[in-house]
Amino acid sequence: MSLIVLDHLEKSYGTIPALRDLSLQVPEGCLYGLLGPNGAGKTTTLRILATLLAPDLGHVRIAGLDGLKDQREIRRLIGYVAQEVAIDKILTGRELLVLQGDLYHLRPKQRNQRIDELIEMLGMDPWIDRRCGTYSGGMRRRLDLAAGLLHRPQLLILDEPTVGLDIESRAVIWNVLRDLRDQGTTVLLSTHYLEEVEALADRMAIIDAGAVIAEGTPNDLKKRLGGDRVTLRVREFSNEQEAETIRDLLEPLDGIQNIVINRSQGHSLNLVVDGEQVLPRLRLCLEEAGLPVFALAQSRPSLDDVYLQATGRTLMDAELAIAGQRDPKQERKQAMR
Amino acid sequence: MTTPHLQIDANQASSRGALTELIQETTALTRRLFVQLKRRPSTLIAGVLQPLIWLILFGALFSKAPEGLLPGGMSYGRFLGAGVIVFTAFSGALNAGLPVMFDREFGFLNRLLVAPLRSRSSIVFASVIYITTLSLVQSLAIMFTAALLGYGWPGAGGLLLVLFTLLLLVFAVTALSLGLAFALPGHIELIAVIFVANLPLLFASTALAPLSFMPVWMGWLAALNPLTFAIEPIRAAYAGPLDLSVVLLDAPYGPVTGQTCLLVLTVLTVGLFLLIRPLLNRKLS
């Protein structure tokens, strides 16, 4: 049973495309992760779900409601925790939660009870009555989460919830999210941290350049890759020509499923192999060809490999590549209404 | 694919009436603005201090001006009083858009837009209520000071007229300021517009000097300036018995009665709100 159905979404900010053809379904009661580098379209997707933006093309359905026609009903069901915490520096945390409660039309008694509940759940008691302007990043994030949970939403949407947080705050939030999912809330979060998706997600989708390029449970995605990973470096930094030569040399070997040249890691080779017998065969082949071996390592497939397979580069490198192109001023403008 | 079961939670108060919800959200948003004011009273104080200085200094500047220079033989202090009162309300209302602009810039508006507000007009209502209260309080402070300085006090009927006129002006200028807050890209641009608009509008009105003092071109400007249409009725309210059919302004295009002044202000207010409505709908929907 899908709580969220996104159907061929397209969205551009002026001339800048953000979503090209994004389709996704999120089952009810699932903790769903959207993985991708910054600039992939995760924030745009979440903003559309939170009814802040309308897609240029495509359909959005949440709990059977239409994303464009039933916006107020949708807003009652969802809680949204944005990437940048928007708080009012001069109010106290409690005052912000009271305001939030009123905006969601909670009756005062229930509102106050719920606020006390959340203060305890998120450990906010020592500082909740201080002004928001005095809060650290972790405190702000917890307050923002509390604000999103105040009205007991059926769907909680979080955009990069643990960016820039210390380990303790991150652990607190992870536990809260898991508890929510256990109690039946559907949680959708976007992240560019592999370990976050690994630790939390029941299901996940990899988003790159405005479209979903892989979808499933983390384990399925890894299994789908099949085989083990071998990383081979004949020297610390190689080049395209040498990498291609070695690839052509090794490909016909027994037990080698696939070889990808990792251009962003010194043109090393990432091989997908069947089992452990392949390593000695590899070494022998390289020795016979007179090639040195700088590093040779084998591991089970990881999410990084899933990402690499799907996009042709590692997550970190995708981020670095995009980082240079992003304009913080542009993004501020996109977020501003 | 079947529709997932919607959990109706006791906390999801969808059973409350539309009006209750509207009042609840408007009250909450208004309360926030007043809490901000309470903790950062500089807006209130600056809004009173500046006109106060104008009133005292300008009044003293022309205190020895020859009698009979001004129409009706009134003292310059009394003449100026009406101008400064309107200036206070005008300046206060012109800043109405600033909190909204900051909310736009720092993402707080997005928080409001994600919430299931009964109507997004409550955002506008809250701003209007807040600024109106603030401007009227500031204007009353100036009126009390003017009284202390011996510049007079309107009678009971006159007081109602003063408050009504100020209300109209504040509504009109608030609409303008909110429109600018949504149309301009940032707070720097908004502050620049407010800064540039403030003083010239004051000078090109009858706040500081009567029409008869001005050259023809300036007379035209002043006679078309909305501030003038607020100043003259208030000046009349201070002058004595209330009669709105009396000509208050000898404009270059013809005589203007008190009734006409109020009519012009009303039309202006309604017109400005209608003007900004499509912009607000676009930004808030």
Q: Which overall shape of chain A is indicated by the principal axes computed on the Cα atoms?
A: elongated
On the 0-100 scale, what is the average pLDDT of chain B? 89
Helix content of chain A: 25-40%
The description of the largest β-sheet of chain B is:
2 strands, antiparallel
Mean pLDDT of chain A: 91
Structural class of the secondary elements of chain B? mainly alpha
Annotation field: number of helices of chain B: 11
| Annotated CATH topology of the largest domain in chain A | Rossmann fold
CATH superfamily of the largest domain in chain A: P-loop containing nucleotide triphosphate hydrolases
Count of DSSP strands of chain B: 2
Distance between the ends of chain B: 30 Å
- What overall geometry of chain B do the principal axes of the alpha carbons give? elongated
Distance between the termini of chain A: 34 Å
CATH architectural category of the largest domain in chain A:
3-Layer(aba) Sandwich
Structural class of the helix and strand makeup of chain A? alpha/beta
- What Rg of chain A do the Cα atoms give? 23 Å
Please provide a written account of the structure:
The complex is a heterodimer of chains A (337) and B (285). Chain A contains 13 helices and 14 strands. The radius of gyration of chain A is 23 Å and the shape is elongated. Chain A has helices at residues 42-49, 71-77, 93-103, 108-121, 137-149, 167-182, 194-200, 218-225, 240-250, 278-288, 303-311, 315-323, 328-335; strands spanning 2-13, 16-27, 31-35, 57-62, 65-66, 78-81, 155-159, 186-191, 203-208, 211-216, 228-233, 256-262, 268-273, 295-299. The longest helix of chain A has 16 residues, at 167-182. Chain B is mostly helical and 285 residues long. In chain B, 70% of the residues lie in helices and 3% in strands. The longest helix of chain B is centred in the middle third of the chain and has 28 residues, at 121-148. Mean pLDDT of chain B is 89; it is low at 1-13. At the A-B interface, strand 1, helix 2, helix 3 and helix 13 of A face helix 1 and helix 5 of B.
